[in-house]
Design goal:
Blueprint lengths: L1 E7 L4 H15 L4 E4 L6 E6 L4 H10 L4 E3 L3
Antiparallel strand pairs: 1-3, 1-4, 2-3
Length: about 70
Amino acid sequence: METLKFKSNINCDGCIAKVTETLDKAVGHENWNVDIKNPDKVLTLIEENLDEAELKESLSKLGYTIFLLPN
């Protein structure tokens, strides 16, 4: 399993509610979280076979962007 961290514009509980279904489908309910207190609004994902492009597109349709952070 791999842990990936993304800078995002998911910045409040309402935003988290909007992306929950998409992220649950992509990586599973227990395999993601968003640190909305972090200035970069870090989205952390735990996944083996994540299709990053597909996830970015799905979140974009909801009005959110993510950018992979360097390790």
